[in-house]
Specification:
single chain, alpha+beta, five-stranded antiparallel sheet, about 40% helix, about 15% strand
């Protein structure tokens, strides 16, 4: 099926994710299954960061039979390109959440490529099941589903083709792809239509889980920091050496790299931008509204359909009557005067009315003003003069703005020239010298951009990108010309690599002593915690314990199992322990640089009769969870029935590093 309304989308800035499109979906239980179908619209057009290996090769196959020589007969293929696209979507999702896109090597270590493969296989299993069950979704059904979607409905509640097109354009998803996804979702809804969420969870299970989740507990707490121990001894030589040998990995001297680079930014072309005085003056005139406040006028008006009536109203007003009385006398309308209030010229329709009103003195106009709406009798009650900022005061800003507008074009030209020079010379140094660009260097920095003393030395524009590129480039080799999200361009040459190594004790003795003392302080503090815990469980109240320790006992706010009260030392790990405790029992929880003693002060159990509305709402959520679990089991059963074969060699080749 082609485009539903025959409008090809253009590229425009992205809008919020597709959840807006899907939140009205008919089958809530399908939401966890079809997140991959119309995943975040901001993903459209993501560049492929992977090696172009086997773009159309299969990495897996659902169902079917594989014959020698002939290959697969029947079933459904899973292509490498599909898996790569899903992999890239995952990287983009991480970038949106964290602000940083993981490198491919890092993503592979975390197994994101395996997750991408599994998601694409699951989608293929569903598509294959739809075909096997003979489920057919007509073009009319797809059109109707799209037309019913509130996201595409105009103010009148009917389908708006223009809105539909704009939504897809702004989301950067093609109409063809959206239609394919909608067809798949409708078919899957039919496939899983037998699973009805209502009433799936037993009432006894619902009540029990609701009680557990709604129960609230109030806790008493004491925070015992490690810093309570102040007299930590220094280690003996034997203790220090033993500790160092057992913890050498903590003190390893990291890999250091020396690198040189060329950075090209807008600042490199600013002095090439020429701005004439005339251009600055024209910019000032074009943006005059920005520099000051416009004139305002407090205006009333009466309107008639003929010039004679308008003149009669003016004559009556000149004879001593108010504009209101004059308008009532001529038109017979007691509400004939309209108060426009305080307006600027741009607030009025352009043309004779705006020009006329802003050309009059205070008072009633001597002649009516004709506009396409009729004849206007105008009264100017008050004039507030506008204030303009003198040209000289904003001249410097205007020059800077004009240069900023022209600089990007010059920057691209410089970058292009540099790329050509690089291609010709095959040398960053030679290309930079040809164009008069500065080469900068850093000596011995680690992967964080710090020197051997731990001082941050790589700072300024693209600092993190520079270090990342230097540590991704071989010794005596140059990186590609790279661009940052902020529009800076750079190339890096890794001049020298000093491998990571294990130090001698003499090189890091101060660090080893500090680490030993930190661990010793913790041991001594934990001994105090253990002693306090024994006293608390023997019956000593928290106020007395806190006084003995020179600390403060607190009472936290009531919390459920999923809440916290960090201000009173109830972090989530402490809350977990709180809900394991029997009344009048105390536990200790290690948190940060200390420990928290926690005791149950009171328990507030939920009242199922009183909380019936919440209980019913929770029951529906639980029904949906059970339905989702059934659907996942059905998918697993379909996968087992059809069989899935993965070509490990093809899969690994899909994510092989570039040579």
């Amino acid at each position: 099926m082609g485009p539903v309304v025959g409008m090809a989308p253009r590229q425009e800035p992205p809008v919020p994710p597709v959840n807006q499109f899907r939140k009205y979906a008919r089958y809530i239980v399908l939401s966890i299954l079809f997140g991959m179908l119309i995943i975040s619209f901001g993903l459209w057009g993501v560049g492929d960061m992977l090696k172009a290996v086997g773009r159309s090769s299969e990495v897996a196959h659902v169902g079917g039979t594989k014959l020698p020589i002939y290959g697969w007969v029947g079933g459904a293929p899973v292509y490498a390109t599909e898996v790569r696209e899903q992999f890239n979507r995952q990287l983009e999702a991480i970038q949106r959440q964290t602000g940083q896109r993981p490198e491919q090597e890092q993503a592979l270590r975390y197994g994101l490529h395996v997750r991408a493969l599994e998601e694409v296989i699951q989608r293929a299993v569903l598509d294959y099941a739809v075909r096997e069950f003979g489920l057919i979704v007509s073009d009319e059904e797809v059109r109707a589903a799209i037309a019913r979607n509130p996201a595409f409905q105009g103010t009148g509640g009917s389908f708006d083709p223009l809105l539909y097109r704009n939504r897809l354009q702004q989301a950067r998803i093609s109409e063809q792809q959206f239609v394919v996804d909608m067809r798949r979702e409708i078919a899957a809804s039919q496939l899983f239509g037998a699973v009805r969420a209502d009433g799936l969870a037993p009432v006894s299970l619902r009540d029990q889980i609701f009680k557990l989740e709604s129960e609230k507990r109030t806790a008493e707490t004491i925070y015992i920091p490690d810093a309570i121990v102040v007299d930590v001894p220094k280690p003996t030589p034997e203790q220090l050496n033993t500790y160092f040998e057992a913890n050498k990995a903590k003190f390893q001297i990291p890999e250091f790299r020396a690198f040189s680079y060329v950075m090209i930014t807008v600042d490199d072309v600013q002095n090439q931008v020429a701005v004439t005085s005339d251009a600055v003056r024209q910019e000032y005139e074009a943006r005059a509204a920005e520099f000051g406040t416009p004139e305002k006028r407090d205006v009333d008006q009466a309107m008639t359909d003929t010039e004679d009536k308008a003149k009669a109203i003016i004559a009556a007003a000149k004879g001593g009557k108010s504009l209101e009385d004059a308008a009532k006398e001529v038109t017979g309308n007691a509400d004939g005067v309209i108060k426009l209030g305080s307006v600027t010229k741009k607030d009025l329709p352009p043309g004779p009315l705006a020009d006329g009103i802003f050309g009059l003195p205070e008072g009633i106009a001597a002649a009516p003003i004709q506009s396409p709406l009729g004849w206007h009798i105008v009264r100017i009650n008050k004039i507030e003069a506008g204030k303009a900022v003198p040209f000289e005061e904003v001249k410097e800003k205007l020059e800077k703005d004009l240069k900023a507008q022209q600089a990007p074009d010059l920057l691209i030209k410089l970058v292009t020239d540099f790329e050509r020079a690089l291609s010709k010379t095959q040398s960053m140094k030679a290309a930079a010298e040809d164009l008069g660009l500065k080469i900068r260097t850093y000596e011995n920095v680690d992967a964080r951009g710090q020197d051997a003393a731990g001082k941050q030395v790589v700072i300024g524009p693209a600092s993190s990108e520079l270090v990342q590129a230097a540590f991704a480039t071989r010794e005596s080799a140059e990186s590609d010309l790279l661009e940052t999200p902020r529009g800076e361009y750079f190339i890096v040459r890794t001049d020298r690599i000093t491998p990571a190594r294990a130090p001698t004790l003499a090189e890091v003795e101060d660090r080893v002593v500090a680490a030993w003392q930190l661990e010793e302080r913790r041991k001594l503090a934990e001994a105090k915690v253990k002693d306090a815990l024994e006293k608390a469980n023997a019956g000593t109240d928290f106020a007395t314990l806190a006084k003995e320790l020179g600390l403060e006992a607190r009472i936290a706010k009531p919390v459920t199992r999923f809440e916290a009260d960090a201000g009173n030392y109830l972090s989530q790990p402490v809350v977990v322990e709180l809900f394991k405790l029997a009344p009048d029992k105390t536990a200790s929880v290690r948190t940060g640089e200390g420990s928290v003693l926690v005791r149950v002060k009171s328990v507030e159990a939920p009242d199922l009769g009183k909380d019936k509305e919440q209980l019913d709402r929770f029951g529906k959520q639980l029904d949906t969870m059970v339905a989702n679990d059934l659907i996942l089991q059905l998918i697993a059963a379909l996968r087992a029935k059809y069989g899935v074969t993965v070509d490990e060699a093809a899969f690994q080749a899909t994510f092989a590093p570039q040579q």
